[in-house]
From TrEMBL:
<feature type="domain" description="Porphobilinogen deaminase C-terminal">
    <location>
        <begin position="230"/>
        <end position="293"/>
    </location>
</feature>
<keyword id="KW-0627">Porphyrin biosynthesis</keyword>
<dbReference type="InterPro" id="IPR000860">
    <property type="entry name" value="HemC"/>
</dbReference>
<comment type="pathway">
    <text>Porphyrin-containing compound metabolism; protoporphyrin-IX biosynthesis; coproporphyrinogen-III from 5-aminolevulinate: step 2/4.</text>
</comment>
<dbReference type="InterPro" id="IPR036803">
    <property type="entry name" value="Porphobilinogen_deaminase_C_sf"/>
</dbReference>
<dbReference type="InterPro" id="IPR022418">
    <property type="entry name" value="Porphobilinogen_deaminase_C"/>
</dbReference>
<keyword id="KW-0808">Transferase</keyword>
<dbReference type="InterPro" id="IPR022419">
    <property type="entry name" value="Porphobilin_deaminase_cofac_BS"/>
</dbReference>
<comment type="subunit">
    <text>Monomer.</text>
</comment>
<feature type="modified residue" description="S-(dipyrrolylmethanemethyl)cysteine">
    <location>
        <position position="243"/>
    </location>
</feature>
<dbReference type="InterPro" id="IPR022417">
    <property type="entry name" value="Porphobilin_deaminase_N"/>
</dbReference>
<dbReference type="Pfam" id="PF03900">
    <property type="entry name" value="Porphobil_deamC"/>
</dbReference>
<dbReference type="GO" id="GO:0004418">
    <property type="term" value="F:hydroxymethylbilane synthase activity"/>
</dbReference>
<comment type="function">
    <text>Tetrapolymerization of the monopyrrole PBG into the hydroxymethylbilane pre-uroporphyrinogen in several discrete steps.</text>
</comment>
<feature type="domain" description="Porphobilinogen deaminase N-terminal">
    <location>
        <begin position="5"/>
        <end position="214"/>
    </location>
</feature>
<dbReference type="Pfam" id="PF01379">
    <property type="entry name" value="Porphobil_deam"/>
</dbReference>
<protein>
    <recommendedName>
        <fullName>Porphobilinogen deaminase</fullName>
        <ecNumber>2.5.1.61</ecNumber>
    </recommendedName>
</protein>
Amino acid sequence: MQTTLKIGTRGSPLALAQAHETQARLMAAHGLPAEAFEVVVISTSGDRIQDRPLSEAGGKGLFTKEIEEALLAGAIDIAVHSSKDMPTQLPDGLELSAFLPREDARDAYVGKAAKTIADLPRGAKVGSSSLRRQALIRRMRPDLDVVMFRGNVQTRLRKLDEGVAAGTILAYAGLKRLGLDHVVTDLIPLDVFPPAPGQGAIGIETRIGDRAVEKMLVAIHDVPTGQALACERAFLAALDGSCRTPIAGYAAIEGGKLSFAGLIISPDGTQSHTIELQGPAQDAARIGTEAAGTVRAKAGEKFFDGWL
Ligand SMILES: NCc1[nH]cc(CCC(=O)O)c1CC(=O)O
């Protein structure tokens, strides 16, 4: 009898879409039926905490803790994640060993009366709980009222319908995976809203040394996405000292060449520092680390602890 590969995921509609995309790619790559895989839904602390900003409750790890425990315990064989939500430090024994081809990494504006942020009336409310997006909105339009917006993509869209805010910003990738891209009223250029490291890329976490699983994943791993992610995650890891400093970073790969653009910005949007660096895609991690060193030197150490 064939053993089934257990695919662990959160239960949000986006997480489920990502788990099913992974399953479909594995089926196609290996000529296996759906029954060769089982999608196992795991509830995480991040899903349960709804009353305060996650950056206060403990940060990124909240969406992965219970899933990683299940992976280490052998209750699941792979865990499918939004790479953007993954801490740079994983628990001992686990690694991100494969990435699916990256979806469009841009942020999207979803507006009601006004179709773009630029068209909003003075003082209009824009909902976002991301420190990076809040800072970028304030940089662009210091007059706007940035309000907290928690919950999954559907919850945020419902809040818009209820009139809680005039608009919100969501990852275009997530909306596309949910078949909700028709709600987008403006796609924001990468240089106006540089994305969070990892945005748009599905990452697959495995137990280090699980050769059978690694062999299966090679067939669905996208090499350029893996290189882009190595660069962006190295940039993030080298700057991660404070989770209160918004960090953006995006690496584009073309013909074996990597072009990285990074940004750090004060939460009020008034101060920011950028870095651009190119090099061979094989040197992805080194480029990310070097970019972090350069932008850190430009900004000065004070930049990272001044926002509490
Ligand atoms: N923090 C939630 C989250 N994590 C990943 C995505 C979108 C999908 C992706 O970036 O791959 C989202 C929603 C959003 O930012 O709109």
